UniProtKB/TrEMBL annotation:
Residues 346-366 are annotated as: Disordered. GO terms for molecular function: nucleic acid binding. One of its GO terms (biological process) is DNA integration. It comes from Leptobrachium leishanense (Leishan spiny toad). This is Uncharacterized protein. Residues 346-357 have a biased composition (Low complexity). Its main location: nucleus. Residues 1-150 form the Integrase catalytic domain.
């Protein structure tokens, strides 16, 4: 399931709900007036999917607010639907819906009016055409896979109806149908060739293996992403979600979903020239665990509280974090920061209660 959003208004509709059956590849495209809430999505789903095909065993979607809401999760749990969500920063996990979106958009681009306000009228014919085209994956049309026979096709010629307007409409319909069918067949072949050209067998990892994580989609707290490390970690694999997705043990301060596609992972290869960086453990100070501060990089006032941007000894740039000034027990480094940046917030820092270069900080997960 997926949404196509921000479309020009057509009969009051601006959104298309895309639903694709993973087995038969049959698709349904539902015009909607706006992006629905979770409560609004349930009756739409029942009307356009459950009413026709029954309750599905599982649903794959992205992490849109509707799909991760407690209302939608509760509905699916109570009717016996297993929910799966796409991997972080890898929309190909929900590839069937993504491809369906591309096909329906291509159809609309070819036949929509100049004002782009008639796409709602084209949706039924687009669905009929897509469900009647032979799927490369199954060798049959989605219609045949579901119902056991192919749908009727338009006749090669139409008899004269003696109604000029009707004759013109039927001729246009036949021409449109042929163009759509040829375009879909050509598009399907081209997409398959391009995809296969770049595909390689996915590496296999075991639980407990350590891997590097691409920083491509992670906003690191560094002055310039151009000079930032391309991979961060290494992080331990917690579990295998499916053949191409794995869950990682991320630090608590990296607040993103911890399931990633293998294309974003790189194995940790060690030889006699490499040395794995093991983050130093905390030290105990007055019964509390604290970590050593490498440097104070910045200062700010957030919600009335002075905070320092801290770089930690033995940790990478992805682990840098903002901490309240009261929790940073490194007066020497604080003084050095203000000597270099006298105009920074809190330019006259209060002396800390004890010396040293330590601070509280959430450690890495085991």
């Amino acid at each position: 399931m997926d949404f196509i959003v921000e479309l020009p208004e057509s009969k009051g509709n601006t959104v298309i709900l895309t639903v694709i059956d993973r087995f038969s590849k049959m698709g349904h495209y539902v015009p909607l007036r706006k992006l629905p809430s979770a409560a609004e999505l349930v009756p739409i789903f029942i009307t356009n999917v459950v009413r026709i095909h029954g309750i599905p065993l599982g649903i794959v979607s992205d992490r849109g607010t509707q799909f991760v809401s407690r209302f939608w999760k509760g509905f699916c749990k109570n009717v016996g639907i297993d929910l799966s969500f796409s991997s972080a920063y890898h929309p190909q996990t929900n590839g069937a819906a993504e491809r369906a979106n591309q096909n329906i958009e291509k159809y609309l681009r070819c036949f929509i009016s100049e004002r782009q306000d008639n796409w709602s009228d084209l949706i039924p014919w687009a669905e009929y055409a897509l469900n009647s085209a032979v799927s490369e994956a199954t060798g049959h049309s989605p219609f045949f896979t579901v119902y056991g026979f192919d749908p009727p096709v338009l006749p090669a010629t139409f008899p004269d109806t003696a109604i000029p307007a009707l004759d013109e409409h039927l001729a246009s319909l036949k021409e449109t149908w042929g163009r759509v069918k040829r375009a879909l067949e050509d598009s399907s072949g081209i997409q398959k060739i391009k995809a296969d050209r770049h595909r390689r067998p996915a590496p296999v990892y075991q639980v407990g293996d350590r891997v590097w994580l691409s920083s491509r989609n992670i906003k690191l707290l560094v002055p310039s992403m151009k000079l930032a490390p391309r991979y961060i970690g290494p992080y331990k694999i917690l579990r295998r979600i499916n053949p191409v997705s794995y869950a990682l043990a991320l630090p608590s301060h990296i607040r993103i979903h911890n399931v990633f596609h293998v294309s974003l992972l790189k194995p940790l290869l060690c030889n006699r020239y490499t040395r794995v960086r093991v983050p130093p453990p905390p030290v105990s100070v007055e019964g509390e665990e604290e970590f050593e501060v490498e440097a104070i990089l910045d200062a700010r006032v957030s919600r009335g509280v002075l905070q320092y941007f801290v770089d930690w000894v033995g940790y990478g740039p992805e682990d840098r974090s903002w901490l309240p000034a009261t929790e940073v027990h490194a007066p020497r480094l604080v003084r050095a920061f203000y000597l270099a940046h006298p105009r920074a917030p809190g330019g006259r820092p209060v002396a800390a209660r004890r010396g040293g270069v330590l601070s509280r900080w959430p450690p890495h997960p085991p």
